[in-house]
Amino acid sequence: MSNTTRTIRMVIADDHEISRLGIRRLLASAPEIEVVAEASNGNQAIEEVRAAKPDVVLLDVYMPESTGIDAAKAIKNDSHKCHVIMLSSVDDSNAVHQALYTGADGYLTKDVSAPELISAIRSVLQGQRVFSRRILNMLDGEIQSPEEASGSEGKPAVSLTKREEQIVSLVAKGHTSQEIAKKLYISPRTVETHRARIMVKLGVNNTAGLVRFALLHSTYFDSKVELPEE
To answer: In b/e form, how buried is each residue of 107-130, taking b as 16+ CB within 10 angstroms?
Structure first.
């Protein structure tokens, strides 16, 4: 590994040892990724993350003692900035929505390939949210309202102001209202007001609906929306 390559510190949490071994093998082709700890349940995952302070943690959704969702919430609530990617062998819509609520940075199915997993890890470190194609297809299938349908070239059919587009773009990247406020130089309360207006325009009544919309149109917003320089 080059001396200039930044090491990515990882924690793997899965209650099946064979799954943890399989993930290690998938990561073997990326020498900059170092697995610094493993956990077999949610509580242990929280402890290992607090002790090792990794850059990224891979969390199995269904683990004993404390689920991956519970662990993700605790990890995100801690002060240490750790990126969280959920792993699951099941396309569980409820689990995906819960993961989004906790602020998870990604949700991958366990049939992910080595290049896809490594790319996802690198992407979350760049502030992006990552989802397996199967998960995105599932979310797409849940959207019923015509307001969420795409227009030409992937542009949302609903009309958003420049500020609203900026906020949706940042929501797709997994930023909280506080983080969005800091990036846009406005107050968190103003962000919440904009989010509420966006949700009314979309015809959705919860954060999961807003996040689904943001993710499905993230390519458009990434290419068209300009954000203030930091």
So the answer is: bbbbebeeebbbebbbbbeeebbb
What domains appear along the chain, each with residue ranges and CATH number? 8-140 (3.40.50.2300), 149-224 (3.40.50.2300)
Distance CA 14, CA 20 (A): 6
Element at 12 (helix H, strand E):
strand 8-13
Q: Which residue has the tokens 């199995």?
A: 60
Q: Kindly report, residue by residue over 23-40, the tens digit of the pLDDT.
A: 999 999 999 999 999 999
Is the pTM higher than 0.70? The answer reads no
- Which run of H or of E encompasses 8? strand 8-13
Q: What is the dihedral of CA 91, 107, 10, 125, to 10 degrees?
A: 160
Query: Could you tell me if 206 and 101 are in contact, meaning their C-beta atoms sit under 8 angstroms apart?
Result: no
